[in-house]
Amino acid sequence: MIAVEFAKQIRRVRTWVVAGICIVIPFLIGLGFELGGNTTASGGDGLSLVTHQSGIVIGVFALSFSSVLLIPIVFAIFTGEPIASEARWGSLRYLLVRPVTRPRVLGSKLSVSVVLAVSTTVLIPITGTIVGIAFFGLHPIHTFGIGNGPSVVTWSIADALSRLLLATVYTLFSMLSVVGIATLVGVATENALAATASGIGLYIVSAILDALPGLSRIHPLLPVHYLEAWTNLFVPGGSLQAMGRGVISAAIWGVVPLLLAFRVFRRKDILC
Amino acid sequence: MDAPVVIDVAGLTKRFGAGVVAVDDLSFSVRRGQIVGLLGPNGAGKTTTLRALLGLIRPTSGTMAIFGETIRPGIAVLSRVGALVEGPGFVPHLSGRRNLELYWRAGGRALSEAQLEHSLDISGLGPTADRKVKTYSHGMRQRLGFAQALLGKPEVLILDEPVNGLDPRQIVEVRESLLRIGASGTTILLSSHLLSEVEQTCSHVVVVHHGRLMQAGTVAEVTASVASAYLEVDNTDIAVALLAVLPGVRSVQPSPPGIVVQLAGAKRSDLVAALVGAGVRVDTVTARRSLEDAFLELVGEHSV
User: Could you read off the pLDDT of B250-303 as tens digits, one per residue?
Assistant: First the structure.
C-alpha cells in the first residue's frame, strides 16, 4: 500500500514543483549574500553570523529564512492533501472497498506525504550549504559571543555541519504540528485547500499571538514559539533548553490531532 | 433448489443528520448467480444501500452480510466483491492501465491474479488505456470503472448505475457483458433508475422508493403483480371519466394517444363493455404488463 501511494504521489507535478522551489530558494539566498558583500546577517532568536566566512553559513541562513514560512507551507501542502485529493478524484471509495482498512489507508498516505515533505525540505539546507561552499568555500565558522560567554568562538567544519544537521532535524520535527492539523482537517473536510490553509493558518495565527507581549503567558503553548530555538546552536553558550521544550511541544501538537484524525477517519461515512 | 444467499440486507436504516432518512428498514437478499436490479427513482436510497453494503457508510440500524460475514469498514470479504459506486474514480495524472494496476496492488495481491488484460478487453478502451485518465471522456471513465470492478473475476459484482453516461452501443455491450458474467455464476447486484435496463438485464428486481422496499421478486413476478390495460378510444375525456369510477379500477391515466388503466379486480372485457355501453368506440385494447407499469404503480401509489 505504501508502494502504491508512493507511485501515485511521485508522479504529481506538485511534488516536483515543490522540490524545485526548495532548491532555487537557497540558491537565491547564496546569490544574495554574494552580491550583498561580506557583512553580518542575522536571523531569528539571536542568530548573527558573518556571511562570507564559510559556505555552511549559507546553509544555516537558508534554513533560518525558510523555517517560519516555506517549510511549514511545504508540509501543509503534502500532508493536507492526500485523503482530500483521493476523495475529490472519487478513488478513495475504491481504495476502501478494495478493501484496505481505514487506518492503513491513512497511515500509508501520511507516511508517504511526510517522507516527501522531509525529502524536499531537507534540500533547503543541503542546497544552501552546497551553493555556499561554491561561493565561499568550506571553512570553520567563527562567531562572536554575547553576554558573559567567550568573545570569539570557532566551530570546526565537522562541528558546524553537525550543528546544522541537528538544526535541520529539529526544524523538521517541529513540523509535526503542521502535519497534525493539516491531516486532521484534510480527513475531516476532504478539502485539500482547507487542510493546507489550516496548517499554514495555525502557524500564522500562532506567530501573531506569539508576537503579542500581552499574551506572554500562553506563548510557550503556541506551536511556533520554539520553532527557531535551534538558532541557539549557533550562538556561543546558547542554551538548548528551549529546543528540549520545542520537541515536547511539537510532539503534543502533532500526536493529539493525528490521533484525532485516525479516529475521525475510522468512523466517518465516506460519501465522496 | 434455492442457491445460497450471497448478499443479505436486514432492516437497513440510514439517517443522515437530523431528519433525512435515506434508507428506511430495507430488507432483501440476493442468491448466488442471480442478477438483481435495485430499482427506484433518483433519491430512492439505492446508492446509500450499496455504500452501506461496501462498508463505506455505517447504517443507523440493521445489518448487512456478504457470504455470511457482517459488513464493517474494510472487512476482508470485500476482496471477493467488484464494485462501481456512484461513478468511477481514478487518479487523473496516471494512465487507465496504471490506475487499475495500483488499485489491484493496494489490496496486496499479485498483479498476475488480476487478469488485467481480460478486464481491459471488456472495457474496449484499446490503446486509450495507456493515456492519462484526465484526458478521458465520461463514457471512457465509466468503462474503465467497469473494467476495474471486473479485475480478478470477483464472485460478486455491486454496480451502481453501470450504464450511466454510455452511448446506446456501449449500453448494449455492457448489458451483454453482464449477462455473460452472470451466466458464468457471478452474483450481480446493480442499481438503476432505468426500468428497461433492469428488465433486460436482471433476473430479479428489488423496487425501492423513499428508502423503503416496495416489492421484490423475479422480474416476471413483479410485473405480473400489476394488471393493466392500454386502450385507444374515440373520446378520451369521456372514457377517462367513465373508467375512473368503474369498480375494480385502481387508476386511470391518459397516455396519448390512449389511456392506461391499472386494474384492481376488473377485467379488460369489463372496461370494453362499460365503454361501449356508454357509446364510446374502442379501437385498441392491449394488456400492458411491463415492469414500467408495475414500477409506476408501486412508486406512484406511495409518492407525495
Answer: 888 887 788 888 887 788 888 888 889 888 888 888 876 566 666 766 666 544
Return the half-sphere exposure (C-beta side, CA atoms, 13 A cut-off) of residue A155: 23
Residue A272 in domain: no
Could you tell me the pTM of the whole model? 0.86
- Tell whether A14 is within 8 A of chain B (Cβ): no
Start and end residues for every CATH 3.40.50.300 domain found in chain B: 5-218
Which structural domain range is residue A180 located in?
2-267
Strands B61-66 and B5-16, by their bridges, are: antiparallel
**Cα B221 to Cα B200: distance, rounded to the nearest angstrom:** 15
Asked if B76 and A267 come within 8 Å (Cβ–Cβ), the reply is no
**Residue A72 identity (one-letter amino acid):** P
Closest CA to B15 of B25, B7, B6, B5: B25
Closest CB from A89, A90, A97 relative to B56: A97
Q: Closest partner residue to A99 among B51, B79, B88, by Cβ?
A: B79
Structural domain includes residue A232: yes
Residues B74, A102: C-beta atoms closer than 8 Å: yes
How many structural domains compose chain A?
1
Cβ neighbours for B157, distance < 8 A, ≥ 6 positions apart? B81, B82, B83, B149, B150, B178, B181, B186, B187, B188, B189, B190
pLDDT tens-place string over residues A84-136: 999 999 999 999 999 999 999 999 999 999 999 999 999 999 999 999 999 99
Answer yes or no: are the C-beta atoms of B84 and B146 closer than 8 Å.
yes
Minimal Cβ distance to A8: which of B58, B86, B94: B94
Structure confidence by residue, pLDDT tens digits, B44-64: 999 999 999 999 999 999 999
Residue of B nearest to A108 (CA): B106
Evaluate whether residue A192 is within a structural domain.
yes
Q: Nearest-CA residue of chain A relative to B87?
A: A90
Name the burial class of residue A186, with classes exposed (0-12), middle (13-18) and buried (19+) by CB atoms within 10 angstroms of its CB.
buried
- Pair A159, A55: CB distance under 8 Å: no
Flag whether A63 is in a domain: yes
ipTM: 0.85
Q: What is the DSSP letter of B95?
A: B
* SS3 label, residue B71: coil
Task: Specify the CATH number of the domain B227-288.
Answer: 3.30.70.100
Which residue stretches of chain A are H helix?
2-10, 13-35, 55-67, 70-80, 82-89, 92-97, 102-121, 123-136, 157-174, 176-189, 192-211, 241-267
Can you name the residues that pair with B39 across neighbouring β-strands?
B192, B207
- Say which CATH topology domain B5-218 has: Rossmann fold (3.40.50)
Kindly tell me the sign of the dihedral angle through the C-alpha atoms of A74, A76, A78, A84. negative
Gap between the Cα atoms of B243 and B278, Å rounded: 11
